[in-house]
């Protein structure tokens, strides 16, 4: 009955996501990554050249969360090796009996980017939003250079967090990189997951062999890619130092538009800036998990047969998404005896 309840609840969840605007979030966050993915990494001394600090990041997050009506708490949850995961908790009395929902953000993101969703989602069940290890206000440790080991570090940090918080089971909602990690976690810890919701997930398909044949890449772009390949994706933002905040606002004015119902100022771009000019820890891990042009070294579709068929999946795409939705159809074909629901929203640009 519990499994059926969670599967049926998927329809309600994705309707809340659409109403709350998470599709706009998916488009804006991934577009930001896509527009900066070829930039290089710069040594750790450079962030001191940037007008940022942990306090400024915390202030920027507080500004993102100031419009939330629901009551919530904040805490650092300790895990192994002295690391901590920054966590927001929403849990009112009338939903305490429901399976909690855990939100895993995408690459370059943090808990503040769920600002449009938190009130709606927390009306139906307890909600936990955490900054992934290496991102946001969470600890930024050294990750392995090996793609599988780096992925395992993310997964184990989520499991250690779950144990510390005391959740027996959860609904995992992952956006972008968070969707990739949600499935990876569910493969290893299936008894802890009641439902997986993937919002424009990254890292599922293999890089097509026909990409370059269909769309030849100019030699000069290949040369730049080869030159910058040893470096991190978002270092260009750190490279420009004090010009960084203005650069985000100038290159991505759509951030203000997408969150226009909540903010009329540069709250979102300021938050994104401070998220991504701190020590590049999770960013480095992400780079080590990719091959050129942002494809996953270990595509998740190759491992979907390891996911227990009893776990239902809901996959949300925008109708004009930059993420290829074919992976959703492939997952549905691979899991004929499982609940797989694909949702196309018209809200994403």
Itemize the secondary structure elements and their pairings.
Blueprint: H1 2-20, H2 22-36, H3 54-65, E1 73-78, E2 84-90, E3 101-104, H4 118-121, E4 127-130, H5 147-165, E5 170-175, H6 177-188, E6 193-199, H7 211-214, H8 219-228, H9 235-239, H10 244-251, H11 254-258, H12 267-276, H13 282-288, E7 290-291, E8 295-296, E9 313-318, H14 326-334, E10 340-345
Parallel strand pairs: 3-4, 3-5, 5-6, 6-9, 9-10
Antiparallel strand pairs: 1-2, 2-4, 7-8
Describe the structure.
- The chain has 349 residues and is an alpha/beta fold.
- It has one domain: Rossmann fold, CATH 3.40.50.1820.
- Helices cover 40% and strands 14% of the residues.
- The chain is built from 14 helices and 10 strands.
- The strands form 2 sheets. The chain has an 8-stranded mixed β-sheet, sandwiched between helices.
- Helix 6 links the parallel strand 5 and strand 6.
- Helix 3 runs antiparallel to helix 12 and helix 5 packs across helix 6.
- The chain is globular, with a radius of gyration of 19 Å.
- The protein starts with a helix and ends with a strand.
- The N terminus is likely disordered.
């Amino acid at each position: 009955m519990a499994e059926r309840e969670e599967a049926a609840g998927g329809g309600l969840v994705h309707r809340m996501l659409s109403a709350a605007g998470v599709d706009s979030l998916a488009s804006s966050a991934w577009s930001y990554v896509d527009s900066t993915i070829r930039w290089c990494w710069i040594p750790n001394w450079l962030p001191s050249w940037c007008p940022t600090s942990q306090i400024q990041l915390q202030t920027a997050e507080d500004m993102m969360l100031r419009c939330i009506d629901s009551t919530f708490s904040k805490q650092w949850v300790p895990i192994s090796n002295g690391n901590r995961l920054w966590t927001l908790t929403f849990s009112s009395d009338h939903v305490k009996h429901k399976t909690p929902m855990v939100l895993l953000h995408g690459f370059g993101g943090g808990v503040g980017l769920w600002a449009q969703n938190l009130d709606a989602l927390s009306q139906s069940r307890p909600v936990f939003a955490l900054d992934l290890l290496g991102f946001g206000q969470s600890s930024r440790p050294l990750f392995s250079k090996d793609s599988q080991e780096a992925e395992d570090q993310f997964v184990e940090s989520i499991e250690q967090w779950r144990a510390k918080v005391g959740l027996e089971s959860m609904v995992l909602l992952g956006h972008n990189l968070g969707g990739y990690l949600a499935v990876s976690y569910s493969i290893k810890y299936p008894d802890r997951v009641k439902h997986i919701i993937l919002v424009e997930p990254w890292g599922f398909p293999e890089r097509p062999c026909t990409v370059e044949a269909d769309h030849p890449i100019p030699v000069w772009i290949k040369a730049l890619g080869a030159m910058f390949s040893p470096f991190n994706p978002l270092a260009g933002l750190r490279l420009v130092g004090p010009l960084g905040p203005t650069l985000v606002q100038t290159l991505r004015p759509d951030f203000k538009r997408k969150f226009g119902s909540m903010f009329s100022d540069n709250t979102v771009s300021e938050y994104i800036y401070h998220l991504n000019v701190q020590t590049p820890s999770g960013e480095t891990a992400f780079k080590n998990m990719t091959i050129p042009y942002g494809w996953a070294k270990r595509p998740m579709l190759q491992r979907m047969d390891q996911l227990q068929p009893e776990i239902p999946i809901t996959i949300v795409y925008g109708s004009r998404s930059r993420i290829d939705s074919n992976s959703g159809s492939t997952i549905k074909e691979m899991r004929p005896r499982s609940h797989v629901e694909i949702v196309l929203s018209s809200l994403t640009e």
